[in-house]
Predict the 3D structure of the following.
Amino acid sequence: MNDSTVLLSLAGGALIGLAASLVLLTHGRVAGISGIFGGLLGRPPADFSFRIAFIGGLVLAGLGVALLVPDLVPHTSPSILLSAAAGLVVGFGTRLGNGCTSGHGVCGISRLSQRSIVATVTFMVTGAVTVYVVRHVFHAGGAS
Amino acid sequence: MSTLRASLPTVSALGAGLVFGVGLALAGMTDPAKVQGFLDVTGGSRWDPSLALVMVGAIAVHAALGWLIRRRAAPLFVRRFALPTRTDLDPKLIGGAALFGVGWGMGGICPGPGLVDLGSGIVPALVFVIAMAVGMTLQRFLMPEKAAGPQPPQTTPQTTPTTTTHGALS
């Protein structure tokens, strides 16, 4: 981890914190991406325009990065099959547990929410165990 | 001018999503291999702790700004703050978080980065996002909420209780 990685990590994190604060200031809510995305499935909610605009902003950010700073686009991805399986588990788990890295990890911990702290420790631990099993037991690369 | 004003809430949401997404990309959260390198705590010298700094940066900024913002009487574009109030630790929270971690470790992708990578035109990210939507829908069908929803009924009180058993497989 060199100096520029440290700076980029902190700056990226600061932008994430800023965006979450913007959501709180303007819409009075938690910037939990799995929850905002999940609300778009099923019948249209009253806050449809907020949800679709925020999710659209995330997708647009990816487009902008690909066009303007292609170096930031990851070179490797998991296989299609692994992506599908991972997506399925992430979708089920985040709705069951009411949040993901953004809602629990950033917003919840910032508010010192007991539920979010426990959730974050839990998904960090099971994430680490999963990577251990994938990399060191099955010797598979995962993202390659 | 009035249409501009009317579109401010939506524009601010779009802007927040953009800033969030750029932050994720800058931080390297959108790189599945980097995320797995972070979660690989037994990887020895290959372990990449930099994503912990992303959390530090995000929480430091949001804890401070959030504290200031919550001192306001109300948000800018809605009547009141709607923040989670639950404090109980239930099996759904722990089980759901545990499952999410497994999926996060499998692919190195969580929901936000999946959406950003989708925007960058990465096909596995598109597959991930579609599968995530399926997983969320499955969860709702298999484990429907006991309560009808967060909003109380706005209409006149119903005399005949309507049962909501659709999708009740459990």
Observations:
- Chain A touches chain B through 112 residues (CB under 8 Å).
- The mean pLDDT of chain A is 94.
- The CA atoms of residues 29 and 109 of chain A lie 14 Å apart.
